[in-house]
Amino acid sequence: GMTAANVAEGGYEVRVPGGDIALGGGVPAGARLALVAGGDVSIGGAHAASGDIVFTAGRHVVIGAGAVASGARVDITAGQDVAVRDAQVSAPIVSMRAGSLRVQAELQPTAVTASTELVLDVGADLGVTGGAAAGASATLFGGAQSRSLRIGRDLLIEGGGGENAFARMAGNPDVDLEVGGVVRLQSGRGAGATAVLESISPTTIRIFFPNLAEGGYFVDGEEGRIAAGGSGFFAQGAPAVLDANLLVRYGLARPPAAAEPALQPVQREIQRIDDPFQPTPEETEARNKAREDEEEPKDRTGNEAGPAGSSSGSRRRPVCS
Question: What is the pTM of this model?
Answer without folding.
Answer: 0.78
